Amino acid sequence: MSIRGKACIVGAYEHPTRKAEDKSVAQLHAEVALGALRDAGLTRADVDGYFCAGDAPGMGPLSMADYLGLNRLTHYDSTDVGGCSYLVHVAHAAEAIAMGKCKVALITLAGRPRSEGVATGTAPRPGDPRQPDVQFEYPFGPAIANMYAMCAQRHMYEYGTTSEQLAWIKVAASHHAQHNEHAMLRKVVTVEDVVNSPLVADPLHRLDCCVISDGGGALVVTSPEIARTLKRPLVSIRGAGEAIKHVDGGRIDLSYTGARYAGARAFEMAGVKPADMKYASIYDSFTITVLMQLEDLGFCEKGQGGKFVSDGNLISGVGRLPFNTDGGGLCNNHPANRGGITKVIEAVRQLRGEAHPAVQVKNCDLALAHGTGGSLGTRHGSATLVLERL
Amino acid sequence: MTDRIPPSPTPDPSTQRFWDAAREGKLLIGRNSKTGKTHYPPRPICPFDDEGEVEMVEASGRGTIYSFSIMRAKVPYAIAYVELEEGPRMMTNIIGADFAAIRIGQPVTLKFQPTEGDGYPVPMFTPA
């Protein structure tokens, strides 16, 4: 059974904060929950499905269900695959709705790594010693940045990709972020700015990395029948795919990501091709993340990502594939160090015609949102959604 | 030229033998008794095949750099995946090398390095 057309995203809300020193994580979850429900024209009393991931404090959904006062839950899911969890949640919510397990599903994400002073990308994290990989990896200092850097290094070796080509991705994001009043980095940057910024983990520079921000976001998913009773434009889930890629017993191949599988599954369900997409939200923890996912999703051939992203091809109104028109994780926001929900939110804005006028894609009726969670350098989840305005 | 002292790994009952061997300067990898396919990190159940027993065998210690990155930390270090002669790629550090001269494809050899607090030595690699 396919979930194509079985559910709609009717509420989408991004918290405006980027530094929440005076708020708790649970409070941020509650604020985005209400924001998304208000956007949908629904209330907490309507919610019978709840989805959250590892950023939500407490055991699975228990503490948040309690704190939010959700008393009618007939379905819940706390699948945690890092930053792409929320795209997985949208798909799982659509499945639950199609199966009649719930009618109105709420998905929340929030966190405050900036206020907590987390060195997200550069500090190796010890992890749980029972995690079987930790004793074979942690002694060598794996940090998020150097793991993605090894992917970039390998990509450059195999395909001749350059730092200048990667820089174009940040340049495009900055062109979009200048119009977003909430974005952390609104200054338009050049290729030279990026390649001249300090190296964090060769070959990635400081400006190849996403921001560290507080904040959050929420989504409301419901059936097409209920969606038609609401006043919001109809954004239908047309395709969804998820995948896990890992170290594979020592056969890790850093040249591609799980997007190869998640994307193919989503496009197959949707019955459309990458070239049909008017807009794409692409997970952008680093510039290399975007480049590899674009290849693996099929927007260009493997190894051609560098050429594809160059010369403004990702800039709305300029290039062939407008991406991350909110400025993305690279410039706008990366709440809780997890950029998945904001990817869906901006895709919804584009499909509704509610993106900033300077970056709104004309007649945007088909859009893609793609996320990665975990590390491309070791093990990660990938999730793709094809969304359609009805 | 590395000054970074890595933290010690914490063995578990299934990996104690691996880390005891490390104290003797031996790098163990897993090998399926039926298929002969090697894996890393070694584990009691083969990640590839349901059949066969996992044997822990000593790797030659020769390999090539599959990828790497220089972490620009206060004490910089070179993290890498090294592809062992036997097949598996393993996360490690490249030591005793000029960072600017490290290349993908470069031959390297095993060199165990001490860890914090007289912990278990960990397998690193140096240019061959």
Can you offer a commentary on this structure?
Chain A has 13 helices and eleven strands. By secondary structure, chain A is of the alpha/beta class. In chain B, 6% of the residues lie in helices and 38% in strands. Chain B starts with 15 loop residues before the first helix and ends with a strand. Chain B has one domain (16-127): OB fold (Dihydrolipoamide Acetyltransferase, E2P) (Beta Barrel). Chain B is globular and about 45 Å long. Chain B has 128 residues and is mainly β. Classes of the chains: A alpha/beta (390), B mainly beta (128). Chain A binds chain B through residues 122, 126, 129-130, 132-143, 145-146, 149-151, 153-154, 157, 198-204, 248-252, 254, 378, and chain B through 4, 6-12, 15, 19, 29-30, 38-41, 43, 46-48, 66-73, 77, 79-81, 84, 87-93, 104-105, 115, 122, 124. Chain A: Residues 252-379 form the Thiolase C-terminal domain. Chain A: This is Acetyl-CoA acetyltransferase.
What's this, in brief?
By secondary structure, chain A is an alpha/beta fold. Chain A is built from 13 helices and 11 strands. In chain A, the strands form 2 sheets. In chain A, strands 3-2-4-7-1-8-11-10-9 form a 9-stranded mixed sheet, with helices on both faces. Chain A has a two-stranded antiparallel ribbon with strand order 5-6.
